[in-house]
Every structure is written in structure tokens, then in C-alpha cells.
Amino acid sequence: xxxxxxxxxxxxARAASGCAYCLALVIAALVLSAPLALAALAVAILIAGAxxxxxxELARAARLAIPVALAVAAINALVTRDGLTVIARLGDLPIxxxxxxxxxxxxxxxxxxxRAAILILCGALYTVAVDPDEVLRLFRRVSFRSALTAxxxxxxxxxxxxxxxxxxxxxRCRPGRPPGRVALLRASTSGALDRALDVAAALEVxxxxxxxxxxxxxxxxxxxxxxxxxxxxxxxxxxxxxRVGGWAPFQAYPSLRAxxxxxxxxxxLALVLAxxxxxxxxxxxxx
Amino acid sequence: MSVLELSHLTYxxxxxxxxxxxDVSLTVEAGELVVVxxxxxxxxxxxxxxxxxxxxxFHGGExxxxxxxxxxxxxxxGPGELACAVGTLFQDPETQVVMGTxxxxxxxxxxxxxxxxxxxxxxxxxxxxxxxxAHLLDRPTGELSGGELQRVALGAALAAHPAVLVLDEPxxxxxxxxxxxxxxxxxxxxxxxxxxxxLAEHRLERCLAGADRVIALAGGRLVCDAPPGEFLExxxxxxxxxxxxxxxxxxxxxxxxxxxxxxARAGLRACGLLADAPAAREPARDAGIRxxxxxxxxxxxxxxxxxxxRRVWHELRSGPVLLRDVSLALAPGERVALMGxxxxxxxxxxxxxxxxxxxxxGHVEAAGRVALLLQNPSDYLVHETVAAEASPxxxxxxxxxxxxxxxxxxELSGGExxxxxxxxxxxxxxGAPAVVCLDEPTxxxxxxxxxxxxxxxxxxxxxxxxxxHDPEFVAAFAQRVILLADGAVIADGPVDEVLAxxxxxxxxxxxxxxxxxxxxxxxxxxxxxxxxxxxxLPA
Lengths: 287, 539
Fold this sequence. Notes:
Distance between the termini of chain B: 57 Å
Radius of gyration of chain A: 24 Å
Largest sheet of chain B: 6 strands, mixed
Radius of gyration of chain B: 25 Å
Distance between the termini of chain A: 21 Å
Mean pLDDT of chain B: 87
Low-confidence stretches of chain A: none
Oligomer: heterodimer
Strand order of the largest sheet of chain A: 1-2
CATH topology of the largest domain in chain B: Rossmann fold
Structural class of chain B: alpha/beta
CATH class of the largest domain in chain B: Alpha Beta
Mean pLDDT of chain A: 88
């Protein structure tokens, strides 16, 4: 899963706006705990994925997110002793001891799992829809070398994976007893270091060693830059306001309380709308 | 005006016994295309690294003399500062492209110079347009082919408008088409934009025609600095291993060697050894050139094949077909070359032969063990000493110097590493393998080492199946050629029949002679034309 420029409003927006948008979704996921609000957030991310034409990539991320969410829900239900409504008595279990499953712990586990899944999907959306090179440019004013190192590390991963695959194939071609693990580890490490040396030489001759701070240059703000920045502000504002103003209340213990009134519905709808609106503007999305 | 001056440059790598460069002095004028030649280990790469400032700033070591690029002394300016005067391109495109998209890659050197965004954008556009990579600008670099990546890396080297462009065997990791495209781009840059280029390249036949000068190195010393024609005359006497096949053909006939197929043809025509206009050749009607017996069939009394593939298919799940109904058989001791463009299925076929991949349909049968040497010999080296990697007998069989046995395998030269890797795959107490498969064994190898490898493989006694893009090596080594396209066999026949009439897969001698008489090597060409000359002489 990697960034690829697509004809979508999110890809057309500058990295600062894209980062802000994804960050706002993360903040909302961390701030909100009402199941309805979190479900609205999940829907908003899926709409964003469809709008950015990366639904396939999000589906692949969901294959990781759903088992994680289920595991979190199951573990919380098993280990939490809080909650008044017992739905299953499992008796004495090894390590866990006396275990009763409560409705509250199960629901709260589900909420935690949903939140984890949303965070994974946000990460996936950021990875496939925000240009990492532009992000590097954003951060180079703060710490250029650290930002480049981070960018390089991710770029080198597939190269090293290919190297590793080749190395494994070569070892299969050796007749006789295979070499010991220590020898293999040593050889693969020195191969990676050789690669690192080559990359370092390439960076040197591209002027990295004498890099200067980039000169400021004004890049005009596009409608997509503005749209996603406003959407980010709106998502964060709705989430914080819902939390502070109590528009999306949720209490798990000792007994469940998750009211479904007009306030809650409006907050959920506002989240979905705020996240979806910038995708309606499709002028100038290609390159 | 000189843009590059080397004055009495001597350099020794840290811990090295002898100097990599010794007392090298030369100047390069603006707009010159200079080719640097020499056998492996002659100091070509070190010379180029001295120009880009990596020697001594990146590598360390002992440095004396002086290198000045566009007025900047490399002792005082490191590679980072020199980057505005020297654009550098190395062999391996994978490790030179560091950003996520070509657009960012081309912008990177400009941003490092602190240029404002509009100047960066302009530089990116110009570099992309001049190298024909504008359509790739927003593709992820991970999805680009080796040739595309190398052109992007060349664009990054060019983006800052350097005074000198330094290229260290930039085509050695590319297939011939991508290599030709890159060299074409270089010629265009030199001719249209007056770019000063210093190019190290093993396959001289591909680049000498467009060069202004050739600099030959041997043992770190400058041994020849002359225009291409004069260099070839010098090489015919002093360094035959550096000759191009065309030059070897001409000098073998007692004619003045010429750089490039066109000039060689003109020289032969002037002597009446070649017809004025090449005879029109009909494309081969029989794509298979010569029908070979069915892979499964065997003539009465003929030995069982060393390797047999019967109707082998390899279809990827939700992906393309890598091999389509491939049937072939190798007789014991037969030497067969697999040719075809990148992605034709050559490496996949070798992996099936060696059992690294299993066919989705069909069968692979071998009369014994199948040894496989993959493209990168370093992948085989896991021990601390050469002696620990392979037995003395196996090392001797591949001609590895016994004095190297206590050395670390990664300290060996490219050719020595390859011989050691070959020793590793051959080293089996159970006996010699029935088949030896090699994937691109001559990639990045100079002519001398190629000849050595050909002799070594011929002496193994096993059947040999090798995938290669190198028609010169095939002509010198193989008995039979199999052409693959889109995973299917499209031609299978004796080398002279398949290569002499071809264009893309032809040797330089075959191209000069237009495929006449099936001559592929300079020796065959000399014999053919000498006989023709003898016939033309009055009795």
C-alpha cells in the first residue's frame, strides 16, 4: 500500500490540507466514544475513501482493522470485571480466573475496537492519499534531515524486501547443508549496509550534504486546499464540541447509557457531511 | 575552455595495497563527450568518483594531486557543494532514486540548493522534457522499470544544470533497449545542449560512434587519450581486449578500425569487401528457424536429455501468464542461450529448470541436479572467508586464485565474486550438476572477463542454459539460441541462423556484414571476407 497520484480532490489538495484532514479524523476518533458518533466517523472515512478513489486500499486495510477490532472487543469483554448486566458466566478460566462476561464490557470493547479500526483506516487513507514527498517538504523547514531519513526509510523497505527475496532464492540454490542462521543474518545485514552506502553516495552527489533551507515560495491555494482545510477544522470542531457540549454522550459502566436523541443524530450527521463535502468539488482534480 | 582538470592525481583507498589511480592528468573541454574505458579494476569508477568529489570526501584514503571542476577544487569542496557543478549517475538505478515520485526526485537536487519553488518547478519541467520522462512525473518510483528509473536518476543529475555529467556504467543494469534509449538521451544532451559528459562504459560498440575522445586506463594509469578512431588503432596493438568487435574485424583484415557500424561498413565498401547496397532480406518465414524434434521425442540411440520441459505453463493467480506452453530439451553438454526482451520469461524459465518455481501446468525433468546462478553473485556469499564458501576443488574448477582463500568474499572484485558464486552452486560432493543455469552472467562484465567466463563454462562438461541480452557472448559461447517473447518460445535454432539475420539480437559483426554468411564474431567475419578477397584477386 503506497501513495499513487489519482484524480481525486484529496490527492489534488496540498499535503498540509491532506494531513490536516486525516489528523482531524484521528482527533475525532480519539475524542468521541459514543457508538453512533464513531459509526458516523467510520462511514465518513469510507465516503472519503470512495471520493479519493482508494476504497480498494481501504478494504485491504480493513482486513487488518477488523480482526484487530474483534480482538480488542473480545479481550475487553474477557478481562473487564465492570458492568452490571451479565450475559455469560464462563466460570474459572486459566490465568483469567473467575470470568463473567457483561454486556457493558462487551459493548465498550466494541467501541474500543471500532476506534482502533477507525485509526487504522485513517492511517491507510493518509498513506494512499497524501503525497509523502510533499509531507517531507512540509517538515524540512523544521528538521530537514530527520524528515528525509524518515522518507528514505519507507522508500527503502520495498528495495530491502526484494533484496531479501533474492537472497533467500540464492540460498535455496546452494547445494549441501544450508548455512547457519548467524551467517545468514550477518550476510543479509552486510547486504543492507551495502545498500545504505550506495544510497548515501547518491544523496551526497545530489547535494544533500550541502543542503540549504528552502527559499520561501508562495504556492497559490487551490479550492481543494481550502476545502480540505475547512473540512478538517469543521470535523475537529464538531468532535470537540460534541465531547465538551455533551452532544454525543456515552457511558459504559456500571450500566450502558448511549442516548439517541436529535442532538446525537445532528452531531453524527455533521461529522459525515463535514468529511464528505470537500469531495463534491471535482474541478481540477487531475494532473 | 576546460571544465575539468585533473593534475597528477594519485589516490589509494583506505587499507588498499596499491593506488587505484596513479599520476593521472587530463583536461576535458566544455561540450565534449568523453568515454572512459578499461578492464574491471582499472580505475574508471574511482576516476569518476574523484570528479564528483566522493573521492576523497566520502571514501577517505590517500589523495594527492588536484582535481578542478568548473573552477572548484575538489579538495576544498565536498560532493554536496560540487553537486551544482557535477551531475553523477551510478550503475544501480534502485539505490539512486530516493524519493516517492519522479517529480520529487527531479526537484530534490534543486531544493537542496535552496532554490525557490518556481525555479524548482521550472527545473523539473525542463529535465523531464529533455529526457522524455514527463509522462512518468507522478508515477510512484516503485512502479518504474529499471530503464525508466535510470532516466529519472539522469534527470535528477541534470536538473541543476551541472557543468559536467559523470556516468559510471549507467547501462550495465539495463536491458539493451533501455540502455540504447539512455545512451540516445546522452547523445542528444551532448549534441543539442552542449553537455559535457564523462562516461564509463564496457560495451564500447554502443557509445564510441558519438564520442569525441576516449580515455583508457590500465592499473590506475592513463594509457591512452585520443579520438575514437585513434583509440581503436591503439587498442588493436596495445589492448586488444578493449577493441570493439567491429574494430577487431577491420584490424583483422588489415584495415583501419572505425567506430560504429556505419563507418565500418563504409570502410569495407571502399575496399570492395561489401556490396554497395545490402541485398534485400526477406524476413524469416519460419519463426522457429529450424524445427527441432519435439521436446518429448528422442532419436533412437540418442542420450537422454539433461533437461526437458514439457508443455510448461506458469500462470499467476489474478495475474499474467509468465510461461506459455514451453517445451524444450537440452542434450548433455549442450550450451544453450535464452534471449528475449525484459519480461519475456527468461528468468522464470531458469527458475523452473532449477526447481525454484513449480509449473502450474506441464512438467520439468532433469537427468540430475540443476545448478542455478542468479543475477547477483553477492547473494550467495554468506561466510567470512572465501575458503569457507566452497571447497578447494570447486574453486579450482572455476579458476579462482588460491591466494584469495583467506579474503572476505565481499572484498573480491565483481568477476571474482561471480566465479566464487559459480563455485558455490557447483560444489556438490554428489558430483557435477547435469545442467548449469545462469541468469545474465555477463551483466556489467568487461570483454576480457566475458571471454574467460565463456571458456570456463565450455569446460564444465554439464549442459548450460543461460539467459542473456548479450549477443556477442552468445556468439562466442552458445551452440543454440532460444528466443522467448511473452513467455512463449518464438525461435529455437543454431546461433548463426537465429542471430545473423536478426536486427535487435544481432552482433556488431553481423550488423556490419548485414548477416552475410552467418558470420557473427570478428573471427568468422575475417574468414568470410578474407575468402572473398582471395576470390576477387586475379589468378
